[in-house]
Amino acid sequence: MITNLDPASLGLGMITAIVCIAVLAAMIFLLGFNVSRMRGITAQQGGSQTPTDPASPLLIAIRAHGNAIEYVPTLLVLFLLVAALAPAWVALPLIIGATGSRLLHAYGMVTSKTLAAEDHRRLAGAMGTYLFGVGLAVAAAVTAF
């Protein structure tokens, strides 16, 4: 057990990474809870638990959670690597940008009326995830040498 860890000794990059990891972890659990909630509502209404209609609130909830699970774990590892290896001026914008992108994407998903229609928040969140994710991967690789 670490008892004498001074947060100031971690550095701004690592503190930012830890906070963003906590935010994204909370988001994953909230999206998972939303799936369970929507399953309950759908069951009470006699609906299918395996929906295929892109306007189904249950399908939207499932895909919002599933999409987050596809990207967030890799981002979390990259957050820690970049925070530990790269200077703060590199780490902070990448970590904060990736976190914001994932939050924006999740918000765009759960507020969507249908997955069949384009949504500017979903699109911006997805593009940000790709850009910041590649940036984090490059930063981790370059600073490892």
Rg estimate, integer Å: 18 Å
Separate helix tally: 5
Main pleated sheet: none
Helicity level, as a percent range? over 70%
Give the name of the CATH architecture: Up-down Bundle
User: Which consecutive residue ranges, at least 5 long each, have pLDDT under 50?
Assistant: none
Give your account of this protein's structure:
The chain is mainly alpha-helical. It is 78% helix and 0% strand. The chain has one domain (13-143): Up-down Bundle (Four Helix Bundle (Hemerythrin (Met), subunit A)), CATH 1.20.120. Helix 2 runs parallel beside helix 4 (88-110), helix 3 runs parallel beside helix 5 and helix 4 (88-110) runs antiparallel to helix 5. The relative contact order is 0.15.
Task: Give a brief rundown of this model.
By secondary structure, the chain is an all-alpha fold. The protein has 5 helices and no strands.
Lay out the secondary structure.
Layout: H1 7-10, H2 12-44, H3 57-85, H4 88-110, H5 120-143
Helix pairs in contact: 2-3, 2-4, 3-4, 3-5, 4-5
Supply database-style keywords:
145 residues; mainly alpha; Four Helix Bundle (Hemerythrin (Met), subunit A)
